[in-house]
Specification:
About 75% of the residues lie in helices and about 5% in strands. The protein has a two-stranded antiparallel ribbon with strand order 1-2. The protein has helices spanning about 1-10, 10-45, 70-75, 80-115, 125-140, and strands spanning about 55-60, 75-80. The protein contains 5 helices and 2 strands, in the order H-H-E-H-E-H-H. By secondary structure, it is an all-alpha fold. The radius of gyration is 30 Å and the shape is elongated.
Length: about 140
Amino acid sequence: MIKEFQEFISKGNVMDLAVGVIIGGAFGLIVNSLVGDIIMPIVGAIFGGFDFSNYFLPLSGNVTAVSLEEAKKQGAVFAYGNFLTVVINFLILAWIIFLMVKGVNTMRKKLEKQKEAAPPGPPPADVQLLTEIRDLLAKRA
């Protein structure tokens, strides 16, 4: 069982997946910071400082608080503002990732076109020498 586990772990796909998960986690932190620290303040400034996170409807008569955090302590609330904030963050994040993937795909296409357009270089010296020897032997036969 240990040997089988070692074979499983040593396969390239598992290591690639592990690297992808680690890089994905780090990338997620970068994107969250981009959205929370750079984009959302700009959106807030454009729309007059909207902060949807404290928008809620009380579901209990005991709820009299103004902030969502205090209202949750008093009773059940329908926190639609927090949901709107998460949806907006998701849409912004999805748009950023879409633009990044589109940029990477554009770069890949350009690199592929450059590889196709580039004429193949001369063969290495040893291959050229072997080709000449082959041609000479073919003439003698």
